[in-house]
Amino acid sequence: MSIETRTSIVWDYAPAPESADHIRVRERYGLFIDGDFKDPADGRYVPTINPATEEPIAEVAYGGPDDVTAAVESARAAQPKWAALRDLERAKYLFRIARLIQERARELAVVETLDGGKPLRESRDVDIPLAAAHFFHYAGWADKLCYGVNAREVRPLGVVGQIVPWNFPLLMAAWKLAPALACGNVAILKPAETTPLTALLLAEICQEAELPPGVVSILPGNGDTGAALVREKDISKIAFTGSTAVGREIQAALAGTHTRLTLELGGKSANIVFEDAALDQAVEGIVNGIFFNQGHVCCAGSRLLIQESVHDEVIGKLWQRMGRLRVGDPMDKNTDVGAINSAEQLERIETLVAAGEDEGANRRTIACDLPERGYWFAPTLFTDVSPAHRIAIEEIFGPVVSVLTFRTQAEAIEKANNSRYGLAAGIWTDKGSKAFEVASALKAGVVWQNTYNHFDPTAAFGGYKESGFGREGGPAGLRPYLQVVR
Ligand code: NAD
Fold it and tell me: pTM for this structure?
């Protein structure tokens, strides 16, 4: 006789798809210049694809050099009036944008998920609310700028060019635009080629907020559009978030010019689990650290460092927890891991995972039914990784975690710092003193204790070493958009 116990019940979820009926996506988007959508000078439109279905969503203009020049001219004309507004007036526009993002939150979340492949739960609960929070936060700073820079007298830089990647499209746009505008600058934003849509909806929001024409321009396009923006002479500053390789090119292009630069680049962040940590909590943090947004996160905890004495226990719990991750339709509200953002990114992940296997690491990938169309990669765990393996060194930017071990605190610090990057780190321990000691020895811009991937508009974010320079968020995020007069 078999006895059914509660633990033998297999729980499953009914499908919970979000509807896309309420969204307003146009068939075609021009370039947002001088407060309106305009055709590109060379007439080039390129479809943007849903990576979960490979179906086109809309056609989007690509900005060429003439369009970039037109945007700069409109921005230059707008900047003196924008900077001359009373600080509280500028703040009002930022508040309006924040409120309009909140009003259109459901629509923005769906469009973010359709265009980029991230689970709706994340765009709805993280990307869009945080984007609104950034505008609220910097609206509050607009009339307190001097207090953000030690009570010095400050003035704006002028026209700034901002280039963002595809992993947090609207959120990265908010990180860039909100502090720049609060400081009295005007901005030209270049979204990434695979995810331009929420930036274009933000252009509509700027219109709804009656932002003066030229204060924000949005120029979708590819790397050539970004490079044309970097080459513009009349730009006071470039703020770039993206890969270290492109960051290096931009830095070389700007060497010897008057244009200021901040770079937010890649990472290979260490997530360190000590034997005295609350291990179940740590496992949740490991999962959030690497599988959030399919691992397309610059600060992802992609190098997991586990103290040897608890290695087997942590790996056992982690593997069990990974088995419960739901991979698939990003529009389903129960989905944990959505689609890989593009065919190129999928290929990059596959290449590095193959290198991990070739170099002798032990690969485990969870079994799951993946949709036939679209770009997918199931959550993957590598153990027996040596610090010399490519998967321990290079940014995979996918749902793949590489596990290394350590015996002592000193070894943990040495291994964590053994990277050309220095963006973030996580420390899991019950001892506050140990967390402080390790955190101050780590060369990482952000260090989380007993949590991971926790973002807040009031906190500074940025890197060391090849993860870039400059800070975004909080009062530190004002500094790169201001010059100190005295
Ligand atoms: P990418 O460098 O290929 O592209 C980023 C942006 O730069 C895109 O808009 C692209 O069109 C543009 N671009 C490409 N070539 C250019 C050029 N020569 N001149 C000017 N612009 C150019 O990066 P990606 O693949 O879109 O994004 C992934 C990378 O971004 C990862 O390395 C990730 O770690 C990094 N990232 C960093 C942060 C951070 O805050 N540090 C945040 C998110 C992503």
Answer: 0.96
